[in-house]
């Protein structure tokens, strides 16, 4: 129709269609990296490393005396084998606190965020694959390659989350973030189901338990690397926006960009308040995730296969929990729903203090409760924080976000490890995490959502 006749004058807006296509590709990175988060970091690595460390502790004693020492020795320090995974995670997250902000600054100065995402993912997957060679009593080798894998996992997540504001409008964030988390739990759960069968029926397959565990960790690395191809190919590069004019090469300019952002953060007090709140409540969440397998095997006395089954249950319940929390946020606002989730987390760690040994039904009910709140609280925290980020600063702000996530969660794991070291029980170690959820909730109550959105110059969603 001719425009002069009063008919349509423009071309159809294809932006929503393009965003939807990129969002579907973006979902698959959660699908990919959850294999590491669940099969390796969440379930198998920590108990397996403890077993290797216990064997190493026995190795300190001569052949004529089979008694084992109670601790390992490293650089003059005595390390309890039961606390070793907590200390390994602590070290990797402290290193992350130093590296992630710089990585975020570099990401905001480059157009190829999908390439950076894939690079860190494949580096982490290669390191995770090296765990297949963790045999005998070589606990130090296993600790070092896990640190590389965990650091790469966190770095790739910084880049992945910084892409969220680029491929979605403010009103879409809770939905898109929640679906991403749901993909993650579905993908991680699917592989975990296969690995559950391998570990449970290892005798039938002609495998020792140790060999089955090592093969399952290898499968997690391969899964992570293979599925990363989809977001790498499906998300288009974008030119950087609002970067600071700093002289020097990429590294020097990135340090300058980071310093400018840290100084500018005081102009966004709601973003800063949320980051501090997130530091506390996410430390609690991450420590529960990292320590759940240890608690199930070493404290409650369940076999590795049973713990795998419970973790599998968590994964599939979390799919519905993430989607359900996202829909609830659409009606009540993300902040209210996150606070509700934190209250449930406090109930969970309290119940863990009293759950009887080898009581399967209470253990599975606890797993269901964790699944309901796990994906929901994390997905909404990601989308809620994105509302407070100024345009062009996504990588840097999400690097600070993950400095509070993977980078400073050493507070939780250190607390867990120390309480166990002094009490000899994982029950008070789990219960001690209630302080992190309570402090996080109190700080979150101080966040004025509407003010934070206004300070960042973003659009106000219909429901906050």
UniProtKB/TrEMBL annotation:
Q: What is its main location?
A: membrane
Q: How does it sit in the membrane?
A: Multi-pass membrane protein
Give the transmembrane region(s): 27-50, 84-103, 115-133, 139-159, 180-199, 211-230, 272-296, 302-325, 337-355, 361-385, 397-420, 426-445
The Major facilitator superfamily (MFS) profile domain, residue ranges: 270-464
Name the domain of life. Answer: Bacteria
| Compartmental location | Cell membrane
How is this protein named in the record? MFS transporter
Species = Nocardioides vastitatis
């Amino acid at each position: 129709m001719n425009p002069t006749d009063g008919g349509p004058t423009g071309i159809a807006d294809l932006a929503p269609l393009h965003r939807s296509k990129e969002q579907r590709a973006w979902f698959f990175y959660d699908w990919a990296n959850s294999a590491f988060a669940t099969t390796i970091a969440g379930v198998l690595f920590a108990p397996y490393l403890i077993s290797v460390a216990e064997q190493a502790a026995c190795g300190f004693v001569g052949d004529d005396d089979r008694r084992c020492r109670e601790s390992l020795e490293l650089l003059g320090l005595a390390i309890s084998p039961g606390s070793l995974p907590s200390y390994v995670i602590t070290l990797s997250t402290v290193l992350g606190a130093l590296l992630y902000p710089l990585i975020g600054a570099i990401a905001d100065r480059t157009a190829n965020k999908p390439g950076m995402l894939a690079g860190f993912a494949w580096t982490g997957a290669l390191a995770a694959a090296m765990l297949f060679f963790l045999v005998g009593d070589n606990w130090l080798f296993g600790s070092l390659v896990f640190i590389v894998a965990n650091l790469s996992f966190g770095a790739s997540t910084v880049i992945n989350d910084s892409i969220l504001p680029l491929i979605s409008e403010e009103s879409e964030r809770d939905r898109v973030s929640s679906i991403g988390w749901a993909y993650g739990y579905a993908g991680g759960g699917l592989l975990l189901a296969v690995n559950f069968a391998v570990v449970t029926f290892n005798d039938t397959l002609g495998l020792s338990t140790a060999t089955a565990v090592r093969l399952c960790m290898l499968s997690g690395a391969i899964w992570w690397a293979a599925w990363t191809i989809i977001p790498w190919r499906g998300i288009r590069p974008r030119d950087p926006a609002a970067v600071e004019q700093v002289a020097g090469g990429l590294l020097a300019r990135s340090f300058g960009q980071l310093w400018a952002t840290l100084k500018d953060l005081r102009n966004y007090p709601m973003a800063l308040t949320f980051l501090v709140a997130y530091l506390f409540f996410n430390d609690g969440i991450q420590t529960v995730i990292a320590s759940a397998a240890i608690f199930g095997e070493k404290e409650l006395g369940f076999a590795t296969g049973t713990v795998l089954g419970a973790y599998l249950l968590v994964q599939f319940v979390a799919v519905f929990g993430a989607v359900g929390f996202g829909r609830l946020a659409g009606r009540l606002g993300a902040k209210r729903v996150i606070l509700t989730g934190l209250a449930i987390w406090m109930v969970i760690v309290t119940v863990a203090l009293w759950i009887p040994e080898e009581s399967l039904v209470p253990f599975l009910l606890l797993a269901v409760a964790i699944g309901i709140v796990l994906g929901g609280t994390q997905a909404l925290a990601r989308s809620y924080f994105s509302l407070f980020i100024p345009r062009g600063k996504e990588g840097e702000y999400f690097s600070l976000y993950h400095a509070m996530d993977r980078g400073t969660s050493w507070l939780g794991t250190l607390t867990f490890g120390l309480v166990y070291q002094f009490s000899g029980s994982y029950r008070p170690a789990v219960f001690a995490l209630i302080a992190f959820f309570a402090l996080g909730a109190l700080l979150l109550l101080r966040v004025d959502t509407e003010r934070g959105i206004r300070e960042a110059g973003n659009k106000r969603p219909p429901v906050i």
